[in-house]
Specification:
Elements: H1 15-21, H2 54-60, E1 63-67, H3 80-92, E2 101-104, H4 116-130, E3 136-139, H5 145-157, E4 162-165, H6 175-186, E5 193-197, H7 208-215, E6 220-225, H8 231-241, E7 246-249, H9 254-260, E8 264-266, H10 274-285, H11 289-298, H12 300-311, H13 318-327, H14 344-357
Parallel strand pairs: 1-2, 1-8, 2-3, 3-4, 4-5, 5-6, 6-7, 7-8
Helix pairs in contact: 1-12, 3-4, 4-5, 5-6, 9-11, 10-11, 12-14, 13-14
Length: 362
């Protein structure tokens, strides 16, 4: 996968190029990761608090945040049985409070292709299965503030730790629009928090001036972060907010994000190899950033390269993950349009990648 410094590309990045080209020039990290720089990663919490707060966010949203895929039956209705099975597998293989979190019905879970009722059903199942043992973040992204507010209430009612909200999209908002949107979205939240998500590929990039105002909101306790303005801008954002809220790496550059003060990282690979991703967290908690980078070089990079190839062929984030799950003997299932399942040729190529990186292929 060809890596670019996003300073060369500007805000005109769309979601497909964001996935296919990568965000940070990850190969350059080998020159940046050093041991002995101190432990920037927070100590993890062992149980969920009654109320999500800035003060506990870095200990709770710690480590791999897994975008759960949404499983479907052949008729493309929700397969909640497979969804439960996947949740239980991940919990049995190391994902727990302080060692990861679940992102429910995010882009990796096909939220643009789901109804509000389906998103709610997935949230209910996730809350039932995890039973307070893993922090849950519900995607509440929508073009209609009423939908975001409704899903925020779902998160509150189910005791989920946070709701993920991006700026409104389709119509390009102004800075004032975005600030008012988050004020309205957070107004009714008392127990759950908000994870701000910078989806710059949708046409609006959050400036530090806007983020400063959002982070000051009482219920904002996390930032899912990537920047189109280059590596320095990205790292400045991590360092600027990392001591106040949980900054989540959305760039596949966890070791350097950890060094700069990040709390966790988005990982689709964690659906396949959760133990590997928990180990990445532990290495950085121990200050072993070079070892974490070496582990990512050996495992994550081939996976991300292949995922980028498929992202150039079909929409969505789940097709590669679902195929990998099936190749590892776990439920995957079909995809809803406009996404498609991988072809037999693509599955054969993916199998080779999974074998190379040590995934539990059957």
């Amino acid at each position: 996968m060809k890596k670019h410094n996003l300073a060369d590309r500007g805000v005109g990045v769309n979601r497909r190029s964001f996935i296919t080209n990568g965000v940070l020039a990850v190969g350059a990290l080998s020159g940046l990761a050093r041991t002995g720089l101190g432990n920037a990663v927070p100590n993890a919490a062992s149980e969920l608090p009654g109320i999500a707060e800035k003060g506990n966010s870095r200990q709770i949203l710690c480590g791999p945040m897994i975008p759960l895929v949404t499983h479907y039956n052949r008729d493309l209705s929700l397969d909640l049985g497979a969804y439960k099975e996947n949740l239980r597998y991940l919990m049995d293989h190391g994902i727990q409070t302080g060692q990861g979190a679940f992102l429910v019905a995010g882009a990796g879970g096909d939220f643009p292709m789901l109804t509000v009722q389906e998103r709610t059903a997935l949230a209910q199942v996730a809350a039932e299965v995890t039973n307070g043992k893993v922090p849950l973040v519900l995607s509440a992204q929508a073009t209609d503030i009423r939908v975001s507010q409704e899903l925020g209430r779902v998160a509150e009612d189910l005791g989920m730790y946070a709701a993920q909200m991006s700026p409104p999209y389709y119509f390009h908002p102004s800075d004032d629009d975005v600030i008012r949107f988050y004020h309205a979205a957070s107004a009714g939240m008392k127990r759950s928090g908000l994870m701000v998500y910078n989806t710059f590929w949708e046409g609006y990039n959050m400036s530090f001036e806007v983020l400063d105002k959002l982070v000051d909101l009482d219920r904002v306790l996390s930032l899912k972060w990537a920047s189109p303005n280059g590596n320095l801008d990205y790292l400045m954002g991590v360092a600027r907010y990392g001591d106040r809220i949980a900054v989540i790496d959305n760039t596949d550059a966890w070791p350097i994000t950890a060094m700069a003060g990040g709390a966790g990282f988005i990982s689709h690979l964690a659906s396949i190899m959760p133990e590997h991703c928990v180990e990445l967290l532990k290495l950085t908690q121990a200050g072993k950033y070079k070892e974490a980078l070496d582990s990512m070089r050996a495992v994550d990079w081939d996976w991300e390269t292949f995922r980028g190839v498929i992202a150039g062929k079909t929409a969505g984030e789940a097709p590669t993950v679902k195929a990998a799950l099936e190749l590892c003997g776990r439920p995957g299932g079909p995809s809803r349009a406009p996404s498609r399942s991988l072809t037999e040729e693509e599955r054969a190529a993916l199998r080779k990648v999974l074998v190379k990186i040590g995934a539990p292929v059957v």
